[in-house]
């Protein structure tokens, strides 16, 4: 059971509702038959609320709270009991309007309800469930079909019980989906937590009250402790299974010790690279990529330096600080390049695509982009002292 | 004499020596500190085996994790693939298995697989036993060699072995690989023609 400290209802357009809140909203309605006798259509807007098995008509939303003697529902215009009612979708012979529900109550009165497709679909499902008009259902027709899955469609070709059964399952599932709490709600209640890997740098830093994510700091510190002269550091792939294990530990906020020898060097460096690859947005934000690329394409060294120097202060604070921390570490790696064979150029090839990418880049221009990506990183590594001090 | 084009793709973890293997095979040279490959690189080399000429079109892919998604572009339509690992790194051998699985599912059904355990000159640092790798290769019906781009051990051999294992069909037509030979079938049909009318 969901016991949420429920916030007042979301907007009318959001599909998912608070589980205990009845379905309600403005709908165009018209009576077409009064106790078996046909009457002239007269469309008008009403505020409808589905309260248990009753469909209650109001003039407007305010009326739901106004008092009326003898009525438990407020100032109503009309109360229809849906039990035993027949509910149909888009009765072609009665109206040419689209997204219409035909409601025939058990006493022989008929009403039409009309709204946009999504709303009507929702009301239709709800009313079906309330009315118990599921057994006699001939499957919903017309536009409804397009929404249903291919499987439902092919199955429903055979009439009768299987189609009915499917519809039953479907409405049950829909009911289940509707009663699921919304994702935001789960986040709010701490059931879904924002993880470390795959987060947005800014959010993660805010959560950790820092400018450099804890994991980045811890990982780099651990790598430096072991010595950055390790051959092929950051280039050689670590054991993928181990990297995932570490990631899991970090994400689950389990205690992890990066100095533990179970994590070998390539796992640590692999996890750090993975962290940057998995960020929702690259460390070099996409909005800045063009300016960086333009800067490193400048003719003279002086211009390059000046251009990049101009961009850096504009970067979001967390990006700047994390970048500075990472690049400082990488310049240390480069200093040991005699031993680890990772010169700036080589390190830049590895880190270029890890720190910058564009979501819309397809495979064919990915290779071209890589050239820029690594050039940007290489230049910033070479000029670290001038750029960040 | 006939010449056969062979599209070949090199796969494997980063830093196992894919580019070094290609360099040893193509230019018979070795660089101790070859830098990371960007995207992929392409080279060709023609060899003669048993009187037939094979022109290898070698796609040397980048091993960096970031480029993993690009690999299908290179192994698609490849007649052969060499999956390289580093005998001094157990984890790189584990990756071989995932490459094999991927190729079995996504690659050409008749693709010739070869596994190369590179850096076999570093015997004292060895982490992957020769026998384990051999058994695995046998089990999946792949060619296997331990190689060293540094000392050139077995590098040319693995390419020769691949030539010998290539399906023998299609030597007549010079374009092999993704070409579908439509002619053969048509000939058969003609022969079977049974109703009247002059064959056109």
Automatic annotation (TrEMBL), chain A:
Q: What is this protein called?
A: Rho GTPase-activating protein 15
List compositional bias (Basic and acidic residues) regions by residue number.
135-148
Gene Ontology BP annotations: signal transduction
Q: What PROSITE patterns does the annotation carry?
A: PH_DOMAIN (PS50003), RHOGAP (PS50238)
Segments spanning the bilayer are none
- Organism listed in the record: Lottia gigantea
User: What SMART domains does the record tag this protein with?
Assistant: PH, RhoGAP
Listed A to Z, the keywords are: GTPase activation
Quick one: a GO cellular component term? cytoplasm
Q: Which GO terms describe its molecular function?
A: GTPase activator activity
**All copies of domain PH, residue ranges:** 20-132
Domain (Rho-GAP) ranges? 199-388
* InterPro entries in the cross-refs: PH-like_dom_sf, PH_9, PH_domain, Rho-GAP, Rho_GTPase_activation_prot, RhoGAP_dom
**Residue segments, region Disordered:** 134-163
Q: Name one Pfam family in it.
A: RhoGAP
Automatic annotation (TrEMBL), chain B:
What PROSITE patterns does this protein map onto? Answer: RAB, RAS
Kindly list the GO molecular function terms attached to this UniProt entry: GTP binding; GTPase activity
Which UniProt keywords are listed?
Nucleotide-binding
Q: Does the keyword Nucleus apply?
A: no
- Give the matching Pfam families: Ras (PF00071)
- Quote the CDD domains the UniProt record gives: Rab5_related
Q: Which InterPro entries match?
A: P-loop_NTPase, Small_GTP-bd, Small_GTPase
Q: Does the keyword rRNA-binding apply?
A: no
NCBIfam families (UniProt xref): small_GTP (TIGR00231)
Stated family: Belongs to the small GTPase superfamily. Rab family.
Q: What is this protein called?
A: Uncharacterized protein
**Which species does the entry assign this protein to?**
Lottia gigantea
Q: What is the lineage of its organism?
A: Eukaryota, Metazoa, Spiralia, Lophotrochozoa, Mollusca
């Amino acid at each position: 059971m969901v016991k949420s400290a429920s916030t007042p209802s979301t907007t009318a357009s959001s599909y998912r509702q608070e589980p205990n809140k009845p379905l309600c909203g403005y709908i165009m309605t018209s009576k077409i038959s009064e106790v078996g006798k046909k009457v002239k259509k007269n469309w008008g807007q009403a505020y409808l609320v589905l309260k248990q098995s009753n469909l209650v008509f109001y003039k407007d939303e305010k009326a739901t709270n106004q008092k009326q003697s003898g009525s438990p529902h407020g100032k109503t215009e009309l109360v229809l009991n849906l039990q035993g009612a027949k509910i149909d979708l888009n009765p072609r012979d009665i109206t040419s309007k689209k997204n219409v529900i035909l409601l025939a109550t058990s006493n022989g009165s008929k009403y039409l309800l009309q709204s946009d497709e999504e709303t009507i679909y929702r009301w239709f499902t709800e009313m079906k469930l309330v009315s118990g008009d599921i057994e006699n259902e001939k499957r919903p027709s017309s536009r409804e079909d397009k929404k249903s899955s291919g499987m439902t469609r092919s199955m429903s070709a055979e009439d009768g019980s299987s189609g009915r059964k499917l519809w039953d399952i479907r409405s049950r599932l829909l009911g289940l989906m509707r009663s699921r709490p919304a994702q935001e709600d789960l986040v709010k209640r701490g059931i879904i937590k924002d993880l470390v890997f795959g987060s947005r740098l800014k959010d993660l830093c805010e959560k950790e009250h820092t400018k450099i994510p804890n994991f980045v700091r811890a990982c780099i510190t651990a790598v430096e402790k072991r010595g950055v002269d390790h051959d092929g550091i950051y280039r050689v792939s670590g054991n993928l299974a181990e990297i995932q294990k570490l990631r899991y530990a970090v994400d689950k906020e389990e205690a992890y010790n990066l100095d533990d020898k179970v994590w070998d060097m390539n796992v640590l460096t692999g996890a750090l690279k993975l962290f940057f690859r998995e960020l929702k947005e690259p460390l070099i934000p996409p909005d800045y990529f063009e300016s960086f690329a333009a800067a490193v394409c400048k003719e003279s060294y002086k211009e390059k330096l000046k251009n990049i120097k101009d961009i850096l202060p504009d970067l979001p604070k967390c990006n700047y600080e994390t970048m500075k921390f990472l690049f400082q570490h990488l310049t240390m790696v480069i200093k040991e390049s005699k031993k680890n064979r990772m010169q700036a150029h080589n390190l830049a090839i590895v880190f270029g695509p890890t720190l910058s990418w564009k979501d819309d880049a397809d495979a064919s221009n990915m290779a071209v982009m890589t050239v820029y990506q690594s050039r940007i990183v290489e230049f910033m590594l070479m000029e670290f002292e001038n750029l960040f001090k | 004499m006939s010449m056969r084009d062979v599209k070949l793709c090199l796969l494997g973890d980063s830093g196992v020596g894919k580019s070094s293997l290609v360099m040893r095979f193509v230019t018979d040279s070795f660089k101790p500190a070859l830098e990371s490959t960007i995207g992929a690189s392409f080279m060709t080399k023609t060899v003669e085996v048993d009187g037939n000429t094979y022109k290898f079109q070698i796609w040397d892919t980048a091993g960096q994790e970031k480029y993993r998604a690009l690999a299908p572009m290179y192994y698609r339509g490849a007649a052969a693939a060499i999956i390289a690992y580093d005998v001094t790194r157990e984890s790189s051998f584990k990756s071989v298995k995932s490459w094999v699985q991927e190729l079995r599912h996504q690659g050409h059904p008749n693709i010739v697989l070869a596994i190369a355990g590179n850096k076999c000159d570093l015997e004292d640092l060895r982490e992957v036993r020769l026998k384990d790798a051999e058994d695995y290769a046998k089990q999946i019906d792949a060619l296997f060699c331990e190689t060293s781009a540094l000392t050139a051990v077995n590098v040319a051999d693995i390419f020769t072995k691949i030539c010998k294992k290539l399906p023998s069909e299609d030597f007549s037509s010079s374009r092999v690989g993704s070409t579908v030979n439509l002619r053969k079938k048509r000939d058969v049909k003609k022969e079977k023609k049974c109703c009247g009318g002059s064959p056109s």
